[in-house]
Fold:
Amino acid sequence: MDKVDWRSLAAALTSMPEDEVKRLLDVEMATRRRVGIVRRLHQRYTMLRSARERAELMARLGV
Structure:
């Protein structure tokens, strides 16, 4: 996703899986390093990761 702004990225993020968001975060950190984009990608990534981890914990509890 070259030369992307936050508006176009935000529209696409809602349907992206955790691994794709992480890849975008890694690419942004390795290339353009825009603080606002990194912050928002990280927020989305941690939200997805947290939901996955919570579901895994609940599955281990049998809930």
